[in-house]
C-alpha cells in the first residue's frame, strides 16, 4: 500500500468530507457505515466469543514484537462496543472486560475508511477520542483493517504509551498479519453455518422455547447492570454520559450471591443464543417466507447484543473472584456501561421480536396435515 494511503497526516493538512448520513460528536466523525447490517451480520457466533483463540493470540503477540510495542489488539466493532477479540499487554481491567465503548475507539476510523490509521501522538491528534489517552496514557497507534468475507469487522492494531512514528515497514508487516487474522475470523464465521435439515415447525418450537429462557436470563442480569450503574454513575453523571436512567434496571442493594447468580446466568445464555442462531438460520434456509428469513436477522442481532453485555458481566466476575480491585473495575465500567445498557435494552426487544416472528413463521409454514393435526407444541 502506498504511503499516501495511510491516515497519518494531521487534521490540519488532511480534511475529511462529511457524508450526508454522518453525524459529528465533538471532534469525532461517526458514520452510519459502522451499523451496516451486512457488516454486522458477519459478527456472529464464534467470532464474538471471549474465550482465547490460539491463532488470534499468536497474531497479536507477533504484532507487538514486530512493532516493538507494549500493546497489540484484534478489535471488532459491534453496534455498541468495541470487543477486544485477542490482546497482548492490556491493563488488567481491559483484559478482563475484553471491550471498550465503540465511541472511545481509534479502530472505528479504520473500519470507516477501510485503510490503515497511523497516530503519532494521540494527545495532539484531533481525529481520535481522548478517553483512552486520559485513562491509560495511550499516545501512539497503528491499525490495519481485518475482514471476513470482504467486510471490515475491525482492526489489528499496536499501541504505545509514548508518542512515536510507526513507519511503512511496520504497517506493511501488520497488513501481512492481518491476512492471517482475517482468515481466522472468516473461518470462525463459517463455523456457524446452518444445521442439517429438520422439520421447520419443530425448529420454530425450539426457537420459541429459547426466547422464553433468554427472556428470564436477561431479567436475571438486571442486578449486574444496576449495581454497575449505581457504582459508576449517579444521576448527574448519567445525564452527562447520555444514559437515560428511566430505561435502566433499578439499582437496589445487590449481594455477592445475586451477582454470582447473574454471572452464571449470562454464561448459560451464550450457548442458548448460539443454538438459537443455528436454528433460525436453518429455518430461513428451508423456508422462503418473509417471517422465517426475519428470524435469522433478529437472532444474530440478539447474539451480538448478548456479546456486548459480556464485558460488564466479566468485570463483575473479576471483582467477585478477586482478579480486579474496585478502582480498576470502576475504570473498566466507565468504558462499557453505556454500551451494556443499550445492549441489554436491545436484547430484550430482540427476544420479543423473535418470539413474535416465530409465531408468524409457524402460521406461514404450517400447511395442511393429515387428519388436521396441530403443529408440534401448538397445544
TrEMBL record:
SUPFAM superfamilies linked: GAF domain-like
InterPro entries, alphabetized: GAF, GAF-like_dom_sf
Domain GAF: 51-195
PANTHER family reported in the protein's UniProt record: GAF DOMAIN-CONTAINING PROTEIN, SLR1143 PROTEIN
Protein name per Swiss-Prot or TrEMBL: GAF domain-containing protein
Organism this protein belongs to: Sorangium cellulosum (strain So ce56) (Polyangium cellulosum (strain So ce56))
Amino acid at each position: 500500500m502506498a504511503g499516501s494511503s495511510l491516515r497519518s497526516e494531521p487534521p490540519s493538512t488532511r480534511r475529511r468530507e462529511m457524508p450526508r448520513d454522518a453525524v459529528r460528536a465533538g471532534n469525532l466523525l461517526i458514520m452510519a457505515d459502522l451499523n451496516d447490517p451486512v457488516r454486522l451480520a458477519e459478527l456472529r457466533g464464534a467470532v464474538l466469543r471471549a474465550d482465547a483463540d490460539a491463532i488470534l493470540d499468536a497474531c497479536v503477540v507477533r504484532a507487538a514484537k514486530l512493532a516493538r510495542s507494549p500493546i497489540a489488539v484484534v478489535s471488532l466493532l459491534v453496534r455498541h462496543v468495541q470487543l477486544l477479540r485477542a490482546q497482548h499487554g492490556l491493563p488488567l481491567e481491559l483484559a478482563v472486560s475484553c471491550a471498550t465503548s465503540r465511541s472511545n475507539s481509534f479502530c472505528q476510523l479504520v473500519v470507516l475508511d477501510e485503510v490503515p490509521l497511523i497516530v503519532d501522538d494521540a494527545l495532539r491528534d484531533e481525529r481520535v477520542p481522548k478517553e483512552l489517552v486520559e485513562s491509560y496514557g495511550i499516545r501512539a497507534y497503528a491499525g490495519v483493517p481485518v475482514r471476513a468475507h470482504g467486510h471490515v469487522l475491525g482492526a489489528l492494531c499496536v499501541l504505545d504509551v509514548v508518542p512515536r512514528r510507526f513507519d511503512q515497514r511496520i504497517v506493511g508487516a501488520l497488513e501481512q498479519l492481518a491476512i492471517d487474522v482475517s482468515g481466522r475470523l472468516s473461518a470462525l464465521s463459517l463455523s456457524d453455518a446452518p444445521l442439517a435439515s429438520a422439520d421447520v415447525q419443530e425448529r420454530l418450537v425450539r426457537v420459541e422455547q429459547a426466547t422464553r429462557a433468554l427472556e428470564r436470563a436477561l431479567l436475571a442480569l438486571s442486578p449486574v447492570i444496576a449495581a454497575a450503574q449505581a457504582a459508576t454513575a449517579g444521576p448527574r453523571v448519567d445525564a452527562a454520559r447520555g444514559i437515560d436512567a428511566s430505561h435502566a434496571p433499578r439499582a437496589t442493594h445487590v449481594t455477592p450471591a445475586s451477582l454470582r447468580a447473574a454471572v452464571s446466568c449470562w454464561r448459560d445464555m451464550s450457548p442458548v443464543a448460539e443454538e438459537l442462531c443455528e436454528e433460525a438460520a436453518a429455518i430461513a434456509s428451508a423456508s422462503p417466507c418473509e417471517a422465517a428469513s426475519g428470524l435469522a436477522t433478529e437472532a444474530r442481532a440478539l447474539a451480538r447484543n448478548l456479546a456486548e453485555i459480556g464485558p460488564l458481566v466479566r468485570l463483575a466476575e473479576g471483582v467477585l473472584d478477586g482478579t480486579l480491585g474496585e478502582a480498576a473495575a470502576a475504570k473498566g465500567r466507565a468504558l462499557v456501561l453505556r454500551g451494556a445498557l443499550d445492549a441489554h435494552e436491545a436484547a430484550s426487544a430482540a427476544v420479543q421480536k423473535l418470539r413474535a416472528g416465530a409465531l408468524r413463521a409457524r402460521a406461514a409454514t404450517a400447511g395442511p396435515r393429515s387428519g388436521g393435526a396441530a403443529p408440534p407444541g401448538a397445544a
